[in-house]
Design a protein that fits this description.
Oligomer: single chain
Number of strands: 29
CATH topology of the largest domain: Glutaconate Coenzyme A-transferase
Radius of gyration: 27 Å
Helix content: 10-25%
Strand content: 15-25%
Largest sheet: 8 strands, mixed
CATH architecture of the largest domain: 3-Layer(aba) Sandwich
Shape: globular
Number of helices: 13
Length: 543
Amino acid sequence: MAARLPRTMACPALVSRRHLYNSLLTTTSKTTSHLHKKPLRASLSHRAYTTTLPRYSEPLVPRIVRGESKLFSCADEAVADLKSGSTILSAGFGLCGVAETLIQAISRRGPQGLHSLTAVSNNAGVAKVGGLALLADAGQISRLIISFLGNNKTLEKNYLTGKIAIELCPQGTIAERIRAGGAGIPAFYTPTGVSTLLQEGQIPVRLSSDGKVLEHGKKREVREFKGRKFLLEEAITGDVAILRAWKADEAGNCVFRYTTKAFGPIMAKAATLTIVEAEEIVPVGSIDPNDVDLPGIFVDRIVPATAEKHVEIKKLREVDNGTSAKKETPEIVQRNRIAKRAAKELKEGYYVNLGVGIPTLATSFLPEGRTVWVQSENGILGMGPYPTESEVDPDIINAGKETVTLVPGASTFDSSESFGMIRGGHVDVSILGALQVAANGDLANYMIPGKVFKGMGGAMDLVSNPNNTKIVVATSHVAKDGSSKIVQKCGLPLTGAKCAVFEVDREKGELTLTELAPGVDVDEVRAKTDAEFRVAENLKSME
């Protein structure tokens, strides 16, 4: 069997110029040591290379030596040689599965010891609680590549005042870019983001202190396949990946629990150096090969996980204890009515994805005996209701970072697998909220320029294949300020084009009113709708 080469020498095409200079220097030293002449110059491809080494910046990746133990006594030791300017892939979803032990160790190095980092993650954690927010708030991160800011007001403020650059990228696209990077695929085409600001490269990345745009995102190349447009996305790789595993053996084989695997396995494969913090470290051979989620070839360092797990949003289901039901406010009545109508779109055996907010209520109104499989884009198929207090598990959350349960027959997987289901059209129905919906089915639900900058999360992916996945928008008719959410043309940045009770004819760009809420007439709907619409001949009442 051939001896294993060091990682930097595994492919001749990747041999560095520094190594080439060293080889030349060694050769000329042996062949000219008896001559008293000026240093020999060697010619390669008609270019002269002196034997004097030029100055190169230090490599950003710490040294990796095959054969040495992967075990480190603590996280501080494992991150001691990380370098400023590195690109770090940080696994986890919300606060679930985040490498808190390693993040805290990086934080202890301070902005003087480790700075100018580019961090890639689904989101940036919660200020003063956990996740990358700890490093971003300390000024150690200069650039973030994420899909969702969520309610991190500190990070949003730092972005809007020019203290940090943020590249927004759809969640499924980030996952696939990372997966491609780990598989040696330089780029790929995706339907996600077509006809949006992402395609045009118009999402602001860096602002000045007074809010002027200093840098926009990169414009995407567009190509058509079988009559559909697709965007070219480039792979993402990192210098270092940090992730948390439930169990790891001394060879680096890792096991993840439930939704903690959202980004861990794919990020480990896309980094030159991968550091794993494990809740349990076991001898080689202790993990059944069938249970390995991440093979040891992708892991370089292992440390004990000592930081506590956080639950970002602990959501519990109400237990019927015989007491009288709480009085419902008009807002709750409205939300329930919308969710009840959305539930009618869910047929027996359907695979469905539910967005945050009103969409999550839809399954509560399914007829008795009807079964659907709820998919959550962070990596669940077979999501159940909220847990009771005794059922809470920080490793099982939904796309809204809320605690949930799993139904019998459920499965969990990483985000690239999840969005393959979504983009591939395997999900029957996707229900999501909206800021605006246009007459032609255009949807805007992630940004109000200058006011709201949360990110698109997985929404752009969810609406990327409306020919195979039915898109249902569950939202109130008007915004809090009284403005109509149903418009002739979206004035806000689009989440998806021609996607979406109005019935949408995506080809003609027409809306048809098919149902009315109790107590509401057509004239009131017209008064609160900016878009033109037809009224169905058999207009029904929402039940």
